[in-house]
Design goal:
The complex is a heterodimer of chains A (358) and B (178).
Chain A lengths: L3 E4 H11 L4 E4 L6 H13 L3 E4 L3 H13 L5 E4 L1 H16 L5 E6 L15 H6 L9 E3 L4 H18 L3 E6 H5 L1 E4 L38 H21 L3 E4 L7 E4 L2 H17 L3 E6 L1 E3 L3 H8 L6 E6 L5 H9 L5 E5 L8 H14 L1
Parallel strand pairs in A: 2-3, 4-5, 5-7, 6-7, 10-11, 10-13, 13-14
Antiparallel strand pairs in A: 1-8, 6-12, 9-11
Helix pairs in contact in A: 1-2, 1-6, 3-4, 9-12, 10-11
Chain B lengths: L1 E9 L4 H14 L3 E6 L9 E9 L13 E4 L2 H7 L8 E5 L13 E5 L1 H8 L5 H13 L4 H11 L7 H16 L1
Parallel strand pairs in B: 1-4, 4-5, 5-6
Antiparallel strand pairs in B: 1-3, 2-3
Helix pairs in contact in B: 1-5, 3-4, 3-6, 4-6
The chains are: A alpha/beta (358), B alpha/beta (178).
GO molecular function, one term (chain B): oxidoreductase activity, acting on the aldehyde or oxo group of donors
Protein name (chain B): 2-oxoglutarate synthase subunit KorC
Keywords (chain B): Oxidoreductase
């Protein structure tokens, strides 16, 4: 199959099918309703299940149920919808179910707007629901990368028995770009016999599986949390992803940016380079686990005078960047909300101003 | 080199489709492309626009404040976007619906009675293809034959319309030369 022109939202649907996920439960919300539109047509073609729930709250528990039975399952939504699902996400994480969630972020808080935003960084990486849990969070910057990350999300969710979230913004969902899919559906079995309540018929031993998040005994609950923590630590060791840009130069400023915002920054960096000012960038592809060491090491390069976190939010990721830089360089934030995506020219001004001040 | 084309008009004029066909042809020619729609609380009869970015290298910012070219299908679009077009770009305006001009003397202004041509051909719905063909013939932004193929592919499920659309392509091309 060659390259085809596809909207991000439709590509998400197709990528999930190619990843061997034949269950999609969702409730429509702008700017990602095209995923549901696409899969309502496509799932029946491949013998899969398309289900529109009565609400996002219900959808989250449908996902929980299907996943507990060992089915590969996913959903897509946008910010307010993810808020509604967050209680269920906490249960899914607590019960260690490998569900994939896609959040095509729109502006908030509250009903907010429907244009691109990155205002759900905290919600995705720090919680959203209650209790000590983490999602493995990936942030694509193009339609092709969205496809790759959706396809990666299912095996990663199963590797850790943990929910994975793809965090995109409205532009990623709405934009059309050329994409290429692998030809074949992923067909290898999951590790579900080890943990899922998928019936005793196929099981060789007589081991009974129990999927739950309730542990009334304090020692048991502490042990359960330690087990979860060990998974999150393992993610930090094995599944940090990021992309450096222009970091083989003696850059004066280091930008940290992800998703659509990072593409705007890339154009700004190219233009500044033509003017004679070198700027580097680390683009986190996983937001949890965060590329802590890469950002720290890039920040303390001798030529680097400042680090700027550029986000379509009011300064969320910058808190993680500060943590990584450990006070060794000044860390600044620049961003905008509500769908007014900063332009390359604005980013260039922000960087130039820094150079003047230092 | 990167070039950007903005298509703008009323919802229902085939604005998003024109952009998609151009993006498709550019992809076939081997370029990197991105098609970025305006999306918002839009409705039929409201304004619609999209931007197509065509480049020989990986596309950075999908946010385009100043496109190189503009295809304006109605007056509000021309008034809104003509001032932001880059110097030396093309502004195609649909003079069937737009009684004014862009007021820019640093661009190539291409005045085409797009809707009148389409009505002559038998369907006002072909307006977007007339405009697209005229724009591509003038700008040579993609190969005209590849554009024809992209149009045929787009209408593959409605083969009865293909002769009309091919006629629209030719009339658009002539209008750009005239």
């Amino acid at each position: 199959m060659g390259k085809v022109l596809m909207k991000g939202n439709e590509a998400i649907g197709e990528a999930a099918i190619r990843a061997g996920c034949l269950n999609y439960f969702a409730y429509p919300i702008t700017p990602q309703s095209e995923v549901a539109e696409y899969l309502s047509r496509r799932m029946p073609e491949v013998g899969g299940m398309f289900l529109q729930g009565e609400s996002e709250v219900a959808v989250a528990y449908m996902l929980f149920g299907a996943s507990a039975c060992g089915e590969r399952v996913f959903t897509t939504s946008s910010s307010p919808g993810i808020s509604l699902m967050s209680e269920g996400i906490s249960y899914v994480a607590g019960a260690q179910c490998p569900v994939v969630f896609v959040n095509i972020i729109r502006g908030g808080p509250g009903l907010g707007g429907i244009l691109p935003s990155q205002g759900d960084y905290f919600q995705a990486t720090k919680g959203g629901g209650h209790g000590d849990y983490r999602l493995l969070v990936m942030a694509p910057a193009s339609v092709q990368e969205t496809v790759e990350m959706v396809m990666m999300a299912f095996p990663l969710a199963e590797k850790y028995r943990n929910p994975v979230m793809i965090l995109g913004d409205g532009l990623i969902g709405q934009m059309m770009e050329p994409v290429e899919f692998p030809d074949h559906l992923r067909t290898e079995p999951t590790n579900k016999d080890d943990w899922a309540t998928n019936g005793m018929d196929t099981r060789k031993d007589n081991k009974q599986n129990l999927v739950k998040s309730l542990y009334l005994d304090p020692t048991q609950l502490n042990d359960h949390n330690l087990l979860l923590k060990a998974k999150y630590e393992r993610m930090k060791q094995e599944d940090v992803r990021y992309e450096p840009y222009n970091t083989d130069t003696d850059y004066k400023v280091l930008i940290i940016s992800y998703g659509t915002m990072s593409r705007v920054c890339r154009t700004a960096i190219d233009n500044l380079k033509a003017e004679g000012l070198e700027v580097g960038m680390i683009r986190p592809q996983t937001l949890f686990p965060f590329p802590e060491k890469a950002i720290h090491d890039a920040a303390i390069k001798e030529s680097c005078k400042a680090v700027i976190s550029i986000e379509m939010s009011m300064g969320q990721m910058v808190e993680d960047v500060e943590r990584c830089v450990q006070g060794k360089r000044p860390v600044e934030w620049y961003g905008k909300c509500g769908g007014d995506v900063p332009t390359p020219e604005e980013i260039m001004d922000v960087v130039r101003n820094w150079k003047l001040e230092t | 080199m990167q070039r950007e084309v903005m298509f703008a008009g009323f919802g229902g004029q085939g604005i998003l489709l024109s952009g998609k066909i151009l993006a498709h042809a550019a992809l076939e020619e081997g370029f990197e492309v991105a098609w970025i729609p305006s999306y918002g609380p839009e409705m039929r009869g409201g304004t619609a626009y999209c931007t197509v970015v065509i480049s020989d290298k990986s596309i950075g910012s999908p946010i385009i404040k100043n496109p190189l070219h503009l295809v304006a299908m109605n007056r509000p679009s021309l008034e809104k976007f003509a001032p932001v077009v880059k110097p030396n770009g093309i502004i195609l305006l649909n003079s069937s619906l737009i009684p004014i001009r862009s007021g820019r003397d640093d661009v190539d202004e291409l005045v085409v009675p797009v809707a009148d041509i389409a009505i002559e051909l038998g369907s006002i719905k072909a307006s977007n293809i007339v405009a697209l063909a005229a724009f591509v013939a003038r700008s040579k932004i993609v190969d005209f034959e590849l554009l024809k193929e992209a149009v045929k592919e787009e209408f593959a499920k409605k083969p009865k319309l293909i002769p009309l659309e091919m006629e629209a392509m030719e009339r658009g091309r002539k209008a750009a030369q005239g």
